Structures are given as structure tokens and as C-alpha cells.
Amino acid sequence: MSQWIKKEITKKEIEDMRLKYGLDSLSASILSRRNVTEGKDILYYMEDDLRFTHSPFLFNSMEDAVDRILDAREQGEKILIFGDRDVDGVTSTTVLYDCLSSMGIDVRYKLPSGDDAYGLSVQAIEDFEKEGGTLIITVDCGISNVQEIALAAEKGMDVIVADHHNAPETLPENAILIDPKLENSGYPFKDISGCAVAYKLVSALRFSESKWYKQEVTLLNVRPLNDASMIECIKLRNLIPVSRIDETVVPGTVSISHTRLPEYLKGQIILVWDENTIKKQLNNIFGSGIEFNFMDIRTEISRLFPQFSDSSLLRIKDMSKIARYGNHAPTEIGGFYNIYVTYVQQSLKKENPKLASLEEKDLQLVALAALADIMPMKNENRIFVKKGLESLNSGKVRNGLKELLSRLNLLGRHITSIDLSWNVVSNLNAAGRLGQPELAAELFLAKEPSVREATADRIIALNAQRKQLSVDAWNYGIMQAQASIPNYNGKLCVVMDPRINRGVCGLLAGRLVSTYDIPAMAVTVIDDMAIGSMRSCRDFNLTAFLNNLSHLFLNFGGHNAAAGFSLKKENLPELEKQLKILSGSIELSESEKDSYEVDAELPPAYITTDIIKICDRFEPYGEENPPLLFMAKNLTVTDGIAIGKGEKQHLKLNIQAGKTRWPALFWNEGDRLHKEIEIGDRVDILFNVERNVFNGVETLQLVLKDIKRSSGDMQ
């Protein structure tokens, strides 16, 4: 019996959120039920401007990486980009390759193909040495390649690691490491994709071409208090605050030399808002004998934003969108910082009109990678995917993706995050799963349209092959999987079969998790090597679990919910033995199978076509942000039929909700008609709202997740 769970929330909660953040009541109630109640999280549901993403220079090592690449360009060095075989790895490679080649750098890329192992390989290093290469940049891999990076260093090569996977206990030495999951990375959000890390590196490289790169400036403001004045200073480098001081001074009581200001401001470019007012305030505090060298930035900023020309910082602070979502009252110096950063970013785009189109192209791939690698749809991931979808739906589809979307009948349609996840990602991933990731890279990088078209056709053919391999893997593994569960204390499902294609091990493990609601492992054998994938559920941390087996592995790594490994075939019996022991200590959170978290209950009269506007607001959907699930009661089934020719038929209904008659689909539940539901019944339903396109015509439909007779209609 399924459970429909609607979290109780108070009217006050909804009203507080509605007033503070400008939300409608329904959106506020949905966010509250999803535990999205803090401004810093609500921001990413309300806003879609790239200004709200994090600066690449928050990575502590970013400036070092940029300088090393700029040195390579200046010295005419050869650079190798080494990526991974999946969508995240291919898009990471593409984004960085596009940028470096446009900078005139001698760059090439390599992806693991065929039965190559994951990560930077000794062979790739040795081949690059023969070419006279001196700089390797790994993307979507590298953080666990300790030995390989040491070998590269021995051969006189430098390595930049741009990765996003969990870091091992021992990190690579003699390398520049950019990984948000490193404890000392400096980056405020850990869960971005490998492609997003590459995009951050590219963004930093583009910024390095501007006059603001490495520029140190100090923003200064004076704010009157009751009987004193507050002098506020923020020191910036690459637009990032690196330090701040506040000096509270009673006018006429202290010399400036007895404050921290002279030392702090020494050698700095000092920017102020309204120079005349600031000078008067400082003269009042310290006397008229002090000379300050200011630049009044208000004049420059007002050329771009005329609406601020007569505004004080006191007024500007209340206009700041970022401040609205903060957990403290907006400040004048904070408003000054926000408007200055926005000014610099807009100036860059004005000086380089191509920058916006380059970002659009990149963000289409960053969006794909976030969905493909199952990154949580929160924080800046939401903006990445929003901007990518916005660009795709505006018709500015990048080369390669255009050809693929055309063949998938998605070109010209309204594309959603679900479309990308289910249709585009699965096809692109097929190339890597079947050992030909270079096809996906060629799709994005080929100059000739005919090459891209032929490559798109080959990728779609590979996906058809991948589907059959997935069916075969399931048939090989299902009996073994079921039988294995008691051997692993009922907490783990394990399949080991050399007939399974290595490219579908992860898919098989994921399907086993969905079937049995416990972590699963799928392992195959190639020659003398065993290769496995593991998928998790119910808050079980795979990284910590696999660390206990690291002595058996040649290589392993990944994320807490999805990981991979390789080991010698001869060690498989020992792996099985250790798994049986360790499985006893697996702790799983309570199962949520057959339970549904309801986002909102809608009265029948509210279920109109306008509901799609709310659904669109909560896009993009994905990990940690599933499609909105609505509940409605006492609706009438006006028609119904079982459709489909497969083993399980689907249920197609017409449902009357207020004045609107809705088509509704319930996948694989055709047998409910005339058993649990009859035409004319009044029913309660759980449903998503989706767009359906047929013969080029778009309509809305309800996709049912559960249905039952209304309590007053029980017989």
C-alpha cells in the first residue's frame, strides 16, 4: 500500500516567505515542503543571472593554473587535455579545447577508448613526451592519478588537475589541483560537474585577457553613526574580497596615523562612490590636512547604468537582489561591492561582444554534464542548466548538438531538463560506454556539417546497440543478483559475469538499485582485469565503503552515490570474501519506496493550464529536485482505455478537474482499469504535469504516479 505524504506547514511560514522573497503562495508552500527556506537557497529558484554563480577565482589554485597556461602560450608549449569517456568528460574536454585553441595554443586532447582504464594513463604520458609536450591538463579525472602524475613530473611535464571527484587520502604532488571537493579548495559549492570545473577554468582564462586580471583595488565607504563614523574598506583581487577592515572613529579624536588605514591603503587603487561627499566626511574625521587619492567609480558605472547616477549607496544597498537573499540586513559596502562586480562583468561583455555567445555555447554543454553526472539541482547548478536550456530553446543550438537534436526530433521543440536527461544524455553516453568517446568529441568539435551529421547517426546507432547490451546484461545478472542478496546480509546486491559489457555495468547496477532498493555492484572481466561499477541508495556512502577495499584495487574513485573500480582478475575471490564481511556493517536509511512526498494539494478549480507556469519555475528538474508532484481529490474519470502492445499496457484516462478536462497517462498500469478504477468513478490522484508533442502540436497532460477511488466513492 503506497503512502501519500503531505508535509504540514503553517500559514505564517508561507506568508513570511511570500513577503520577503516576492513569491506566490503556491511556490512558497512548495519550497517550504522541500525544505528550501533560506534565502541563499531560494535565490537559485528565483534568479537565473550568471552574476549569481560563484567566481572561478574562489578556487585557491585558479590563478596558478591560469598563469601556467598563459606561460605555455607565451613559450609556444604543447598542451594535452586528458578527459574521460562519459558525457561529463567529453563536454569538459570540448569546452577547454575550444578555449585553448581559440587562444592560439598548440593543444590536443585524448580520451580513454576501447578497454582503456579510467584516468590519466602511462601510455598517454609517454606518447605526449615523444611529441615534446610539457603541460597536461586533466578534466573530469586526475585527482586519484598519483603515480601517473609523479611519472609526468619525472619526465619534466607540469600537470593541472581540473576534477570534481572525491579526493583520495594521498593527493598528487607537483600538480596544480582544482577540485571543489578538496578540503582547502576555497570553492563554496562542492557539487558541480567536471565540465563546470572546466568552464570555471575557461572563464578565468577569459578574464585574464582583461585589464582587471590580478588588479588589486580597495572599495572605501564612510558611514555616519550616532556620534562617530564607520570607515569601511574591502580589498579585492580578481573581483574577490581578500580582506576587509572597519574603523570606527569619533571625528577629531584620533590621527589617521593611529588607525589601520595608512598601511591598509598603501599602494592601492582606492575606489569610492561620490568622491566629494567621501572627502568631506574624511576631512571632518581627520582634518583637512590629509590628502586621499580616490577614483570616483560612480561616474564610470553610471555610463553603463544611468539609473544609479544620482543614487547614494544607502539607496543602492536596498536595490541589491543578492542582499535580498542574505541572512543579514543589506549594507552600503556590500551594495558597493555588488554593483562594482556587475559593472566589471558587463564592461567585459561590452568590450568583447563575442563573450556572451561563447558562454552560451559552453553553458549548453555544462547543462548537459550536470544532468548526465546527476549533479544536485541546487545552488549554481540550477543557473547553469537554466541558462543552457534558455539558449537551446532560443534556437542558438551549438554545432554538434544541433545535429543530434534534429535526429531525436527535439530541434524546434520546447526542451526541458527531462528531455536532455532521457534522450540526449543517453545517446551521447553510448559512445563512451561502447569504447568510442572520441565520436562524441568529434560531434562537438568537427568543422564540417557533413562530418557532424554522420557522427550523430553513428552515435544513435551505438545507443541502439547499448540498449541491447543493457537487456543482455539484465538477463545475465538478474538471477545471480537476487541470489546474492542473502550472501551479503540483505544489504548489498552483487553481480559478477564476464559476459556483461563493461560499458553497461553502471546501468545494470543502477537498475538493480531501483529493483531491490539496496546498493548494488556489477563486475565484468576483460582479459586479466576485472572492472566494476557500484551504485548507492538510502544515504549509503560508497567512497568510504570502497576505501576499505583499496588494497585490492588498481584504481577506484567517483562520488558517494556512484563509483567505479578495477582490480586484477585473480583478486575477485578475495573481493567477494571481503564484501561479505563488510556488508554486515552497511547502514541504510529508511526505505522510501512506495511512498510519495506531495508538493501541494490542488483544489479541482486550480488545475488549469496555468499550472505549467509553476512547473516551469521549478525547472530544472533532476537530482534533489524531482518534478513537482501534485495531489488532487474528488476528480471524475470521464473516459479510459488500456493502450500499448508491450507486456504491460498503459492506462490512458480523461479526467475532469473543475472546468478543465485533462488527458492523463499512467505508465505500465493498464490493468488497473476495471479492477481498481471504472469510468465514472471519482478518484484521488498524484500527478506531474508535462508537455506532450504529437505531430508538431504541443499539449499538456497529467502523468499519474498513483490513483485510488475517493473515500466517498468506495464500494
Can you describe this structure?
The protein is an alpha/beta fold and 715 residues long. The chain has five domains: 60-186, inorganic pyrophosphatase (n-terminal core) (Alpha-Beta Complex), CATH 3.90.1640; 216-351, Nucleotidyltransferase, domain 5 (2-Layer Sandwich), CATH 3.30.420; 355-464, inorganic pyrophosphatase (n-terminal core) (Alpha-Beta Complex); 469-585, Diaminopimelate Epimerase, Chain A, domain 1; 597-713, OB fold (Dihydrolipoamide Acetyltransferase, E2P) (Beta Barrel). The protein contains 24 helices and 23 strands. The strands form five sheets. Strands 3-2-4-5-6 form a five-stranded parallel β-sheet, with helices on both faces. A hairpin with a 2-residue loop joins strand 20 (650-657) and strand 21 (660-666). Helix 1 packs across helix 2, helix 8 packs antiparallel against helix 15 (354-372) and helix 18 packs across helix 20. The chain is globular and about 90 Å long. The two termini are 18 Å apart. Belongs to the RecJ family. Residues 490-579 form the DHHA1 domain. Keywords: Exonuclease, Hydrolase, Nuclease. Residues 78-210 form the DDH domain. This is Single-stranded-DNA-specific exonuclease RecJ.
